[in-house]
UniProtKB/TrEMBL annotation:
UniProt xrefs under CDD domains: OAT_like
Assembly information from the UniProt record: Homodimer.
HAMAP family: BioA
Catalysis: reaction(s): (8S)-8-amino-7-oxononanoate + S-adenosyl-L-methionine = S-adenosyl-4-methylsulfanyl-2-oxobutanoate + (7R,8S)-7,8-diammoniononanoate
Subcellular location per the Swiss-Prot or TrEMBL entry: Cytoplasm
Protein name, entry field: Adenosylmethionine-8-amino-7-oxononanoate aminotransferase
Annotated organism of origin: Propionigenium maris DSM 9537
GO molecular function, one term: adenosylmethionine-8-amino-7-oxononanoate transaminase activity
Length: 424
């Protein structure tokens, strides 16, 4: 056993007593991660939905450098600057019509907190004091800060804290599948309607990860559910919040998951790939309807929130450059190509151990019946020069969008080989 005193770096989501030391990165460039004294790995997970351009991209490096040479962080209290203003303008341009006001923060979790605070205060400012609770989906994940944990629903992540959660209801998530029948959608949406019909006078918002419940099990579901959720929320005067921290910037095959629908949420949160995976930042983008409830002569109607690093100029400069590359290099075409490739090659992965397989945009998931059947897979992939990191029953890949076909091929080969070796 290691000496506790030597364990100075406390890793996330890990029992420090039993875990092995993490693989130690020496350098990372493009799609490759080089392990100190070890293998060079093709990155199959893009640092969890964020490193969409891969690592150490020269243009992003220069965008950060150039901004740092002009000025480093200045707080958005009393001061403003082009990078923050330009990024706000860009986000208003590229998000659906009606989302017009951008509040920056420093991580996805805080971006979610901001959206929840906005929802409560929206009703407070309008005189509906009681509307301060939330509805979320079972198996949802919205981050690790308190209210984000509460609207999420993941006992593995948040079990010790559930005793202090009291303001969120969780309904069954919609069934899996992009193409479902109207009757199925109605059955699923009835669960939302049931809660809102009874509790709408105390509910401020319904929050969802649109189309992909990410950390809660890669549940891919139908845009129709979201369209119907919009109608039900409107009927009961409940705000609709889309947490696009994971799905934003191309993961689902369109720029945002919301672009698969014909609706606009009241608030949308972006994070992760917003900065091309470079720096922690999030944007909570609100509709004019929401913003107007804060826009008043009453100082108490102001939104009292302001993370020190919100709108950090270096971060904003990198985010602007990241989107420029996304557009210029036709990432949506690349994404469509990767999706087609994944769909085709996943056909070849077969085993009795598998419960189901699914691909959506640049995310491919193999779900096994028993999580024990993935034990040792990370090391197996490492030995074959691929970085994959299963959790629970899920073996998955969500590579950077710059991944080449032969690299994608290596990733899928390793997944397939794992199951082939387990056949009798
Ligand atoms: N929302 C979703 C959907 C996420 O997947 C995550 C992170 N995995 C978060 C919020 C929290 O983001 P962060 O880790 O940047 O706080």
């Amino acid at each position: 056993m290691q000496n506790i005193k030597n364990m100075k770096l406390w890793y996330p989501y890990a029992q420090m007593k039993t875990k092995e030391e993490n693989f130690h990165v020496e350098s990372a460039k493009g799609t490759k991660i080089k392990i100190k004294g070890g293998n060079e790995l093709i990155d199959g997970v893009a640092s969890w939905w964020c490193a969409c351009h891969g690592y150490s991209n020269h243009e992003l490096n220069m965008a950060a450098m150039e901004q740092m040479e002009k000025f480093s962080h200045v707080m958005l209290g009393g001061l403003t600057h082009d990078p923050a203003k330009d990024l706000a303008e860009l986000l208003v341009d590229i998000t659906p019509e009606g989302l017009n006001h951008v509040f920056f923060s420093d991580s996805g979790s805080v971006g979610v907190e901001v959206s929840l605070k906005m929802a409560i205060q929206y009703f407070h400012n309008k005189g509906y004091e009681k509307k301060s609770k939330f509805v979320g989906l079972k198996n949802a994940y919205h981050g690790d800060t308190f209210k984000a944990m509460e609207v999420g629903d993941d006992p593995d992540f948040h079990g010790a804290f559930s005793k202090v959660f009291k303001d969120a209801y969780h309904i069954d998530p919609p069934r899996r599948g992009y193409d479902v029948t109207e009757t199925e959608v109605e059955e699923d949406i009835a669960k939302l309607e049931e809660v809102l019909a009874e509790k709408h006078d105390e509910i401020a918002a319904f929050i969802v990860e649109p189309l992909i419940q990410a950390a809660g099990g890669f549940n891919f579901y139908s845009p129709r559910y979201l369209e119907r959720a919009r109608e039900v929320c409107d009927k009961y005067d409940v705000l609709l919040i889309f947490d696009e921290v994971a799905t934003g910037f191309g993961r689902t095959g369109k720029l945002f998951a919301v672009n698969h629908t014909n609706i606009v949420p009241d608030i949308m949160i972006l994070g992760k790939a917003l900065t091309g995976g470079y720096l922690g930042h999030a944007a909570t983008v609100a509709s004019t309807k929401v913003f107007e409830a804060f826009y008043s002569d009453d100082p108490e109607h102001a939104f009292m929130h302001g993370p020190t690093y919100m709108g950090n100029p270096i971060t904003c400069a990198v985010a602007l450059k990241s989107f420029e590359i996304f557009k210029r290099d036709n990432y949506l075409e690349r994404i469509a190509k990767i999706e087609r490739y994944l769909v085709e090659r996943f056909e070849e992965i077969e085993s009795d151990l598998i419960d189901s397989k699914r691909v959506f945009g640049v995310t491919g998931v193999v779900e096994v019946k028993d999580s024990k059947d993935l034990k040792g897979f990370q090391k197996f992939a490492y030995d074959r020069g691929v970085w994959l990191r299963p959790f629970g029953n899920y073996m998955y890949t969500m590579p950077p969008y710059i991944v080449e076909e032969d690299e994608m091929g290596r990733i899928v080969d390793v997944m397939k080989e794992w199951f082939d070796q387990r056949k009798n």
